[in-house]
Amino acid sequence: MTAVIDEPARTPGRWAAPPRPAWEEKPGPAGVAGKGLALALACLAILFPLWIVVVTSLSSRRTIDEAGGLVMIPKDITFVAYQELLSGGQVTRAAVISIGVTLAGTAFSMTVSVLCAYGLSRTGSLGHRWVLMLLLATMFFSAGLIPTYLLVQSLGLTDTYLALILPSAVSVFNILVLRGFFMGISQELIDSARIDGAGDLRILWRIVMPLSRAVLAVITLFYAVGYWSAWFNASLYLNDQDMMPLQNVMIQLVQKQEAPVGLGQAIKTGELSGLAVQMAVMVMALLPVAVLSPFVQRHFKKGMLTGAVKG
Amino acid sequence: MSHSTVPRSRAEAETTEKPPAPPGKPGRPRARKPSLRLRWRRDRVLLLMTLPAVALLLLFNYLPILGNVVAFQDYDPYISDNGIVSILHSPWVGVENFERIFADSAFWNAVRNTLVLFFLQLLLFFPIPVLLALLINSVVRPRVRAVSQAILYLPHFFSWVLVIAVFQQLFGGAGILSQLLREHGYDGLDIMTDPSSFAFLITAQSVWKDAGWGIIVFLAALASVPPDLYEAAAMDGAGRWRRMWHVTLPALRPVIALLLVLRVGDALTVGFEQILLQRDAVGPGAAEVLDTFVWWNGVRNQDFGYAAAAGLVKGVVSIGLVLAANKVAHLMGEQGVYKK
Amino acid sequence: MTPNAASAAPAPSRRSFLASSAVAAAAVAGGMPLLTACGGSDGGSREGTTAGKEAEKLLPAYVAGTVVTPDIPAKNGSAVGFTRKLDLAGLKTSVPEKLGKGGRVTIMSPFWGSPPKSDNAYYRAMNDLIGVDITWQNQDGNTYEQKLGAVLASSDVPDVVVVPSWNLNGRIPSAIISKFADLGPYLSGDAVKEYPNLAAVPTDAWQRSIFGGKLRGLPQPQPYVTGIVPLYRQDIFEKEGYEVPTSCDEFLALAKEATNAKAKRWACLDMKWTAFQAFGVMSGNEKPLGWTMVDGKMINRVETDEYLEALEWTRKLFAAGVVHPDAELGKSQATDAGPKFAKGEFLIYAQNISQWWSRTAEQATQNPEFKVWGMDVFGHDGGDPVLWAEQPAGIWAFVNKKASEAVIRDVLAAANVTAAPYGTKEYMMTNYGVEGTHYTVKDGVPTKTDQGNIDVMNAYVMLASPAATIAHPDFPEVAKGQVEWQQRMGAFTRKSSFHGMQITEPSRYANLSSDFEQMEDDFVRGRKKMGEVQQAISEWRSKGGDKLRDWYKKLLDENGSAAN
């Protein structure tokens, strides 16, 4: 009745189209061409700048200076920019920290958010509108930097990793999206489970969550990306530079060139250009996408689950 | 369920089974409000489940938001040993900070720019992720789907500095396009520094950077459309486009409505970092938006009372907007953020 | 407000922030409320300044260092220059015995770049040399302002906090007065002689370190000669046979000749700062520097004809199409000018004098033809220019008010080491680290090792510095060029009425002229008309400019000028 997996049969080439269901008509050549063209253009508009970034990150100072900045046509390939990033051991240490904070933070945020979203998903339940308003208001009213800092400090969270997780653990936007999807789940399923004596936690765990794998994957991704790319809290709440997560280290590596007058002790001489370092940082920022994208896409397969009850 | 009519949406497909659902209150029909005690017994677990999130928000959002009382002060956090104690010692100035904001013509200029950008992005940005998601969803080859999705997500992870640098490299006055034009005897381009088209430039950059990332939620919505709905529609003789119109789009409608309502509530926020970086390029006349205005006039000068006042004004307007948008969503049969 | 984005603006333009006018240096530093009746209490008004006799009582005695003699002594407000090769064996000792008493000190400081591990060879060696266990809290330089604001509002302030002048915005000056210790008892008058290297710090830098009527800061001295140099590609000038221009008309003519957009070459970037210099417009780096007495009348820089003329001429450059299009993006340009200058996309730009050396060093191995040099600032009509002096100190270290005497003594011991002059062992250690580990010397030129490039950054140099020094053992001819440029320009440099003072304007005027820099940029790029600029100036007068004029007049009457 639920969760019918419609795995397409393995076809010889993975680029080939899986067989269509009988009822689906074959698209016309114009349709295929149009779709292909639109998709190709969109991807090209992204890949071309990406090409520039990658090539620049692999270029020597001479090539960059000859191009007057970003490089489009590679002349020489050098990895000095990446060597610069990975030398000194800061990046590897920071990457471990970032992975840890991202994993712990995402798990915590997801737990809190899924519970909250489910708790708000039944219309007409007691007090849910008050809670919703309470949540909503935080999206539009923000506290100043100083009160927030003083709070975190008086809770004793400065120089702890909790300061990177707790203040930003709850995203109301994510909760609302989760809740929207939870509410789309057939009420009959839930009601019948309730009649069978299942409690709310059990319903959430056994019915709602399995039926919401796609959106759970998306929100997990949102939280993970959020934790991974956050840096301001770390720069505010951490004093110990050995605790800094990857983003901060990366930003600071880029900023080496930006030191004010008289403090520019890190002038790049020789092959290495500051621009290449900047671009290398950008390329490395794309790595998580490469890692996470397949994970999320697994849950996007068409017709992977059905939530409706047939009447 | 009869297949004689193609269902409009899943939510509605369910409610059609229970015809007497009162208008504006889709979903579970509520016959009579049960007593408070009954509801408490029934719903206390649900409330308990919201507790962790609520507690975190109360602690880390609401508590520091109390600090916004400095909007009515000439607040000096350094006047005493501790910034909180300083609130007690800072002079109260009534609504002076608010008067200063409203009396400033630059503020109203910033509001106008913000709204122009918001509407432009609503028109030109918002539909694109939906269309892209439909496009991706209609691709059946798994590899093409996977690769194109991965590519479309990438620009979201570029920093704004880089996006602007790339745009400048391509479209700037000394960019590739300009030099190409010059080689053929034309003048160079001015689009990166032209105040009159700045709003379009900003929108184009936003589309490039974030439209691909924006498809994710829609793809999740599409993934949960049951294939039997398509099959049923096809059996009824609905062609490709009619199936999209009657099955796919309705499945997206609740998500679209939710995101639209939230976006309207956020109308006064448009690309802070992106605009701050390009403010000098076209001047504040075209580029000052509410957030950058507050940044220059309140935050940078540590005029905390002023910044807090601006934040309060913005928050009140935003709440008003989101409630209004939610109302509109209700009228259109969507539930938006919360149900009536 | 989104805090993440908060740091976005300054990021690409830190260097220019130092030199740029109103916006960056919007507010000014603190001073003793001599004008107002209520004395030095923390809660009272903190407006005003300390100068003249009052200041003399606070200032440390000056005892010139005798350990090292510079190759080019300071003249006309220049730095001292060293052009000789580095002789490791001949390094002098300026701190014969450790003054540190082995205490623990925590220092918060801005940091540009990626900080090294908190326990590294450089920090260990320095702490050993000083005799104090210093822990560095190195904070991201580009978000330092927010961090500083928050930390000072808390009751947990580190022992020492480093504050650059460009972070003295808004209420930070008043925070400095209420949160940091008076160092007078340890430094004023002859007391400083206990710390000989601090005694050799020039008096005008100390004068700038008086906040709220007390000597609170340990300064980093800088030359008072303008730091903005019109830098140009000397090699291309020679190849094309261009003459260095000596007037505004010559500059424009040369710029037109040199520009060939089709070949992707423009003459220059935004030359507004050079224009201000050529027309003799007062400094916009700090608000008090924009005021001076002319014929018994207190005037502000924006009220002068020169100001408008300088803008008009800059506008001509833009209109003539000789400015590189990237410069139109303004300060926040997302593109790095370095590679474009190296490629020769533009030939002249106005920037801080430190880039004279850094551009040279960057290109030296890869591009042997490349030669950058600084051109003398020309008077707009071809005569001598009128330049205005900048402030003689720009970064301070402050000690927490709650610190014990032992901590203060330890901090001063550390400062006495970091303020050691060029040519001493202490200077080499502070700036280059440990020989063999952090740098190697070949043919009298020290070169940092990989570890040196990681460990030896910022930190100790932020504490206190010797008199402004220019020494580039790798490019001695650049050091010579820089100091000589400063001395030639120094001869044309005047001090405005409030030069050298630490002044706090009444806070109600804090926002008054912060829009002018944007106005200037709008005008020179053709987005605003002269009428609008003039209107903004008259609005400025009526909104508080005239009141501020009276305030400054009174300040001068009661304190006299520092520049005497």
TrEMBL record, chain A:
Q: Among its keywords, does the record have Nucleotide-binding?
A: no
Question: Where do the record's region annotations for Disordered lie?
Answer: 1-27
Which keywords does the record carry?
A: Cell membrane, Membrane, Transmembrane, Transmembrane helix, Transport
What is one Pfam family matched by this protein?
BPD_transp_1
Q: Which GO terms describe its cellular component?
A: plasma membrane
Q: Known Gene3D superfamilies for this protein?
A: MetI-like (1.10.3720.10)
> Is Cell membrane among the key words of this record?
yes
The record gives the membrane topology as: Multi-pass membrane protein
- Kindly list the residue ranges recorded as spanning the membrane: 36-54, 94-118, 130-149, 161-182, 203-228, 275-296
Out of the domains of life, which is the source?
Answer: Bacteria
Q: Which CDD domains match?
A: TM_PBP2 (cd06261)
Matching entries from PROSITE patterns are given as:
ABC_TM1 (PS50928)
Compartment(s) where it occurs, according to its Swiss-Prot or TrEMBL record? Cell membrane
Q: One biological process GO term for this chain?
A: transmembrane transport
Segments forming domain ABC transmembrane type-1? 95-290
The similarity comment for this entry is: Belongs to the binding-protein-dependent transport system permease family.
Name it. Answer: ABC transporter permease
Q: Which organism is it from?
A: Streptomyces fumanus
From TrEMBL, chain B:
Under InterPro entries, the record lists: MetI-like, MetI-like_sf, UgpAE/MalFG_permease
Which is an annotated GO molecular function term of this record?
Answer: ATP binding
Enumerate the residue ranges of region (Disordered).
1-33
Q: Which GO terms describe its cellular component?
A: plasma membrane
Name of a matching Pfam family: BPD_transp_1
Q: Enumerate the spans annotated as ABC transmembrane type-1 domain.
A: 111-325
Where is the protein situated, by its record's location annotation?
Answer: Cell membrane
Membrane topology, record value? Multi-pass membrane protein
Q: Tell me the leader sequence span.
A: none
**Membrane-crossing residues?**
45-65, 115-136, 157-178, 198-223, 304-325
Q: Which UniProt keywords apply?
A: ATP-binding, Cell membrane, Membrane, Nucleotide-binding, Transmembrane, Transmembrane helix, Transport
Xref: PANTHER family: BLL4140 PROTEIN
Question: What protein name applies here?
Answer: Polysaccharide ABC transporter ATP-binding protein
State the organism named in the record.
Streptomyces fumanus
UniProtKB/TrEMBL annotation, chain C:
Q: Where in the cell is it found?
A: Cell envelope
* GO CC list: cell envelope
Q: Which InterPro entries match?
A: Bact_solute-bd_prot1, SBP, TAT_signal
Give the Pfam families listed for this entry: SBP_bac_8
Question: Which keywords does the record carry?
Answer: Lipoprotein, Signal, Transport
Belongs to which family?
Belongs to the bacterial solute-binding protein 1 family.
The name of this protein is Lipoprotein
Please name the source species.
Streptomyces fumanus
